[in-house]
Amino acid sequence: MLTRRAFVAGSALLIAAPAFSLTDASARLTALANEARAREGRKALGAHPDLVQAAQSYAQLMGQTGEFSHRIGGKRLMTRVRATGYRPRYVSENIGAAQGYSDPDAYIDVIMRGWLKSPGHRKNLLSKKSREMGSGLATGADGTVYAVQIFARR
Questions:
Q1: Residue 146 pLDDT
Q2: Beta strand spans in the chain (E)
Q3: Do residues 50 and 82 lie in contact, with contact meaning Cβ atoms separated by under 8 Å?
Q4: Is 75 helix (H, G, I), strand (E, B) or coil?
């Protein structure tokens, strides 16, 4: 029997989730971020295709390698975002990994609650500097689901 657990370190959140529609989960993750922003009087962020691409690509890389880090292979966030053609003046990132939940909505809710409870994640998510965002999710070979949210401003 899998147990549910959460681990927060720095700007990374690890939570003990299922296979599910990653497209739906990504859209839900974006919607929840904007709901949290609205509760704090912040403007909603539009999803920018370049940021979605960067987030999705990085989630897939974590899924392929099994590494849970903001810098895999030495590539910094700014480098990854610029590789899509997006030229940010400001950029931040939240990452999460999860396994063990049978309900996709539970996974998304838990990871978002974790991000909102973590000062670093919360700061990224609610930043007034951000104008656009991208969310991505991918599943690793072991069933771990990796989540990435990138917040930016051009």
A1: 86
A2: 6-9, 12-15, 46-47, 90-98, 132-139, 145-153
A3: no
A4: coil
